[in-house]
Design brief:
heterodimer, A: 115 residues, mainly beta, five-stranded antiparallel β-sheet, B: 117 residues, seven-stranded mixed β-sheet, four-stranded antiparallel β-sheet, 11 strands, 0% helix
């Protein structure tokens, strides 16, 4: 039972264009959402996050949109650069009872930005 | 501000052996997490510490797994009698205290890649 789903295993985008990565979740208790970027043989690197009380958060080239009613979020990267090529993970957290705010991850989307 | 560090980066062991991994979180981060990532999957939560107290354990954490954080600083994860199914990347993450606005953001180490032969 996957609570966070990234339905696109891979995405290819031309350099300079927009990359849109999508994520769906099922657990209504999630109230904080994060995107991580991961290179092979490295740990995930935090990119951007959004609280459930917002519908948009922007940081430079990265914008995350949250649609609570649809239980859907997306990461937009504009303009895309070759250095953005990596696996992107969507993650969600919420009160667990023990206070851990553990993250539940999707399976990731591999983004390739073509020069 | 140094990041989360993990040691070793790679470990190859034979089935049945015990292994121990270490994680050093970012200083002043009082909350620490262990995750496991297998091929084609996202990281999965294993356990959580607040200071030295282990407050939550996933059902993925079988009896062969034990984690400690004796002084509320570094943490160790031990796997006893390793099995081939334990082969994975073991990731450690830490977060700032809850008084910080960024308290929900987890910062990951580079991971320890375990291969059980």
């Amino acid at each position: 039972d996957q609570q966070v789903k990234q339905n696109s295993p891979s995405l290819s985008v031309q350099e300079g264009r927009i990359s849109i990565l999508n994520c769906d979740y099922t657990n209504s208790m999630f109230d904080y959402f994060l995107w991580y970027k991961k290179y092979p043989a490295e740990g995930p690197t935090f990119l951007i996050s959004i609280s459930s009380i917002k519908d948009k958060n922007e940081d430079g080239r990265f914008t995350v949109f949250l649609n609570k009613s649809a239980k859907h979020l997306s990461l937009h990267i504009v303009p895309s650069q070759p250095g953005d090529s990596a696996v992107y993970f969507c993650a969600a957290s919420g009160w667990s009872g023990a206070g851990s705010y553990q993250l539940t991850f999707g399976k990731g989307t591999k983004l390739s930005v073509i020069p | 501000d140094t990041g989360v560090s993990q040691d070793p980066r790679h470990k190859i062991t034979k089935r049945g052996q015990n292994v121990t991994f270490r994680c050093d979180p970012i200083s002043e981060h009082n909350r620490l997490y262990w995750y496991r990532q297998t091929l084609g999957q996202g990281p999965e939560f294993l356990t959580y510490f607040q200071n030295e107290a282990q407050l939550e354990k996933s059902r993925l954490l079988s009896d062969r797994f034990s984690a400690e954080r004796p002084k509320g600083s570094f943490s160790t994860l031990e796997i006893q009698r390793t099995e081939q199914g334990d082969s994975a990347m073991y990731l450690c993450a830490s977060t700032p205290p809850k008084r910080r606005q960024s308290y929900n953001e987890q910062f990951f180490g580079p991971g320890t890649r375990l291969t059980v032969l």
